[in-house]
Amino acid sequence: MYGLLGEKLSHSYSPAIHKLLGGYDYALFEKSSDEIGVFLKSGEFDGLNVTIPYKKAVIPYLDALDESAEKVGSVNTVVRTGKKLTGYNTDYDGFLYLVRQSGIEFNNKKVLILGTGGASLAVNAVCKDLNAGEIIFISRSGENNYENLEKHSDTDIIINTTPVGMYPKNGVSPVKLTTFTKLSAVYDIIYNPQKTKLIFEAEKLDIPAFSGLPMLVLQAKKACELFTGKAVSDEKAKQVINKISLSMKNIVLIGMAGCGKSSVGAALSRQFGREFTDTDSEIEKREKRTPAEIIKADGEVKFRQIETEVLKDCCKLSSKIIATGGGVVTVRENYESIKQNSVVIFINRSVELLPTDNRPLSQINGKEELFRKRLPLYRSFCDFEIDGNGTVDEVAHRIREVLAL
Predict the structure, then answer these.
(1) Those residues with Cβ within 8 angstroms of residue 387's Cβ, 6 or more apart along the chain or in another chain
(2) With contact defined as beta carbons under 8 Å apart, do 122 and 74 qualify?
(3) In the 8-state DSSP scheme, what is residue 329?
(4) H-assigned helices in 14-90
(5) To 10 degrees, the CA torsion angle through 106, 109, 115, 118?
(6) Helix/strand/coil for 159
(7) pLDDT tens, 37-89?
(8) Angle (CA) 338 343 347, round 5°
(9) In terms of pTM, does the model score above 0.85?
(10) Which string of DSSP letters, residue by residue, matches 265-302?
């Protein structure tokens, strides 16, 4: 019996990752702080991963610590051998892999680690072993905090180990990167969403940025090897990263009104067993009016404001199929909402085949003119452009082919 010990685990991807890596069942053990001692001594497991807030709290209940856990000062993996419990830290292995895959040089670089929790200790150990120069921890209080970051404007590398920006509180960042003038890389160990606000800001500034999903999978790879005594190849780990990444991502459909997003989305939902959401329908539920009625009564600007808020709520979720309104690409703020955790499909249907009934913007502006203005926006938002001409099943099949589903 293997599993994950933590306080709140309902959104964990660990069971799926361990199933793919080792083929074994993996349970979630949600325990309060006063339950963990009894649980650890119960003998109800052979191996555990440990997540916040218990990476340090489990140590007094263990019989031994591996060198990795001794070095880091926290435990995220526990293995039972008879009655003996040994603690390990595989976060170290996961972050080291992430750094090596990124190709960023740490030697003599100034590193800013945001946060002082269990994960930050593993990150710090890796930075030391990579011969980083000055390593600074940033906390909410103390000598180095978020109010005096300008002291460290010469930082080379920033690593976020805090939960700031993590689901469900998407869209916020722990720092403003414009404070720093020498940045060569940003790492955010958050994996849900796969692109945080911090990652987006780095990309805008052309700073190499790396999110936490590879770290999550590679620490699980090491834990799996400790559990089973069998090696897991790096190639298999890469396959798991890709598979988990796609399974976590929403499939977001964009394109002109009437191009078939809702019908194709419903078809994909039936085929893959993913929940389907139509943002226009969500708007109607909230406002008790259709998008067309809102536009006619209050204007397009008001409608776009409502649409943006609905889009934020829909796209912060994972593993959904989401059909969007034709004009979502006209609001730049929507780009990050859509791209944070999604693969985006542009359904490009011939303009002459697009209906205009009950579509006031197509009637007012002319669908040809709307398409001309929106085409470059659709292409800047999308990951894949799909021929939208044909039946619903034909278009859905094209999407399955490009996503290799």
Answers:
(1) 348, 395, 398
(2) yes
(3) G
(4) 14-22, 36-40, 67-72
(5) 40
(6) strand
(7) 999 988 889 999 999 889 999 999 999 999 989 999 999 999 999 999 999 99
(8) 90
(9) yes
(10) HHHHHHHHT--EEEHHHHHHHHHSS-HHHHHHHH-HHH
* C-alpha of 372 from chain center: 33
**From CA 147, how far away is CA 174, in angstroms rounded?**
11
Which token pair is 212?
């936490």
Alpha-carbon span 193 to 170, nearest angstrom: 7
Strands 84-88 and 135-138: unpaired
Q: Is 55 a catalytic residue?
A: yes
Q: How far apart are CA 329 and CA 151, in angstroms?
A: 39
Nearest to 347 by CA among 330, 365, 329: 329
3-state secondary structure of 6: strand
Rounded Cα distance, 243 and 245, in Å: 5
Q: Which of 8, 55, 238, 312 is catalytic?
A: 55
Neighbours of 97 (CB within 10 A): 20
Strand positions, DSSP E, 84-194: 84-88, 111-114, 135-138, 157-160, 185-188
